[in-house]
Amino acid sequence: MRFLVSAALMASPAAAAELRMISPGIVYNAALNELVDDYNKKSGNTVIIVRGTMDKIIGQAKSDTPPADVVGLPPDLMNTLYLDGGIVGASYTPLGRGELGLAVKKGAAKPDISTVAKLAQAMNGRTVMVNDPKGGTMQGVMIDGILKRPEFAGAHVTPSSRGEGAAALARGEGDMAVQLVQEIMNKPEIEVVAPLPLELGGHIDAV
Q: Which range has the top average pLDDT, 15-24, 43-52, 119-128, 196-205?
């Protein structure tokens, strides 16, 4: 993801300029801030990152004046934005994929979750912190759908009352959390066990 985001930024004008990027959490939390800082130093340009929820980003991309220079979204939403004339077709570039993973507190045992059955066994009887699906975020809804499968009936799935599930685990709540891997790795109090098994389809692409 670093290379492709960098390529998008390096395509900016050679003269020093102020560029605005609209980014959802899936892109921002994948070390985007560090990448932009490095780009600013090397190019002399100034990239301003505007964070937002995916639904609001679509509206911003179509209505902001002047428009954003770079936009990051999952493919289905980017397709909608393209059809609505919100982006230039030739600039549509894949950025990467964010995988959902299981997190535990730092130093805790890391169970084998290589299959759905083993993941369900690891979660059985444990309090698993998640994003509240009522918030309507793509990640929250996806996690909710996965953990409503009958295999995970033994897990005590608990929506965070304040922020994301991984942040709740980092505050000491619960035993585990399901979150995008990049949003686990930026919290020193918790660790990634592994991405969820591929057959669960727990990922979000960004372009």
A: 119-128
147-198 pLDDT tens trace: 999 999 999 999 999 989 999 999 999 999 999 998 999 899 999 999 999 9
Alpha helices by DSSP H, 21-176: 25-27, 33-43, 54-63, 75-83, 116-123, 138-147, 165-170
Residue 191's beta-bridge partner residues? 104
Whole-number Å distance between alpha carbons of 170 and 163: 11
Kindly report the pTM of this predicted structure.
0.73
As a whole number of angstroms, the distance between CA 114 and CA 80 comes to 35
DSSP 2: H
Q: Which amino acid does the sequence have at 106?
A: K
Looking at every residue in the chain, the average pLDDT score rounds to: 85
What values do phi and psi take at 36, rounded to 5? -65, -40
Is the separation of the CB atoms in 143 and 153 below 8 Å? no
Q: Which domains does the chain have, with CATH numbers?
A: 2-94 (3.40.190), 98-206 (3.40.190.10)
Strand pairing report for 18-23 and 96-105:
unpaired
